[in-house]
Amino acid sequence: MAANTTPEYKFEGWLGYDSSAAQGNMVWGEYEPKPWEETDVDIKITHCGVCGSDIHTLRSGWGPTDYPCCVGHEIVGHVVRLGSKAEGGLKLGDRVGVGAQSDSCQGRKGDCEACASGLENHCPVKHVGTYNGRYFNGGKSYGGYALYNRAPSHFVIPIPAAIPSAEAAPMLCGGVTTYTPLKFHGAGPGKTVGIIGLGGLGHFAVMWAAALGADKVVVVSRTAAKKADAFKMGATDFIATDEDPAWNTKHASTLDIIISTVSSSSMPLMRYFDLLRLDGTFVQVGAPDDGLPKIGAMPLIMKRLKLTGSLIGSPRDIREMFALAVEKNVRPWVEEIPMKDANKAIVDMEEGVARYRFTLVNEPEAEAEKTPATKL
Ligand code: NAP
Ligand code: ZN
């Protein structure tokens, strides 16, 4: 296509029209992207990861979703249209990614401390999700189970050449959501780190904790089914909670930092607390539709525990994470699925079939990527 002119392409993708979409009832169709601004980028999508959040949103689990909704916030593709005021030195054809956030106030309000300090993900003024969000100009955000994506350039991140697209995609949400709190809370030499739930986020957390040099990386999973995989990812110990009633006392006070990726409100949170040492930190990143279980105050008091959370990562965090992935050769476990099978992918994902992340692939576009002479 002619660069930078009114696009010849249409925005089409998998649309959810009501909460039944989460059961595999998304419908392929056309939608209107946000009105173009000169700070924007259009991306021809090659790959998009399937995140647990996609399913929460499709079923209106976190509150009413603004249907029609096209989910997917682990987007990789190539720049096909570039605004004259785009940031970051992007060029047409560049291979780029968009994670779970595609706009913040970015200092438009002048006094936003979060954006000023590179913590756009915690912007208190406006956090525009890559789907199910509204931009300042009133346009709606649509995600990456689609052919094209339009996003403000501030949130469009170049992908290092060493990382294949199918692997870069899930890093953009699942990867950075676990990298950021591990880094922030000092996972590294001298620390024992626990990861609860070995799914998409959890498998990244294990690999990051190992890459950051944690002394021990302990996976807490419901069964031993994923034990061998966990060790291959870098785990040093494994706890199967459904298979040992005494797991919490046997391993009591052994962990400094826990990242919990569990999204069920029936999780045994008080027993997870037992695993923490004095001054331990429990970081909840899984986001159950109906909140956390009721907890007692005593573990917090007795062991001076910190119960906290973490939200995705900023553009800076994504860049840092990519650099660590290249430096330490962190390779996510990805199963590539054709974009046409997105409905099956979300059903399988919800049933825990993924090992450990599904990446949807727009096959002709992904093939073209492998052939440099092909026009993208
Ligand atoms: P996922 O691949 O399905 O992984 C979730 C894991 O949680 C499962 O593999 C399972 O691990 C464990 N689990 C599931 N049900 C459980 C239960 N009843 N009790 C204990 N453990 C259970 O999903 P994901 O993509 O990693 O996402 C996980 C959560 O993180 C979702 O709620 C998602 O919305 C949220 N999320 C949050 C952020 C953020 O910024 N905070 C960003 C992205 C995603 P085992 O089989 O090993 O037990
Ligand atoms: Zn996500």
UniProtKB/TrEMBL annotation:
Q: What's a BP term from Gene Ontology annotated to this protein?
A: alcohol metabolic process
List, separated by semicolons, the cofactors it needs.
Zn(2+)
Asked whether the keyword Oxidoreductase is assigned, the reply is yes
Family to which the UniProt record says this protein belongs: Belongs to the zinc-containing alcohol dehydrogenase family.
Its quaternary organisation is:
Homodimer.
Task: Name it.
Answer: alcohol dehydrogenase (NADP(+))
Q: Which PROSITE patterns match?
A: ADH_ZINC (PS00059)
Q: What is this enzyme's EC?
A: 1.1.1.2
Q: Which residues form the Alcohol dehydrogenase-like N-terminal domain?
A: 38-160
Record's keyword terms, sorted: Metal-binding, NADP, Oxidoreductase, Phosphoprotein, Zinc
| Lineage: superkingdom | Eukaryota
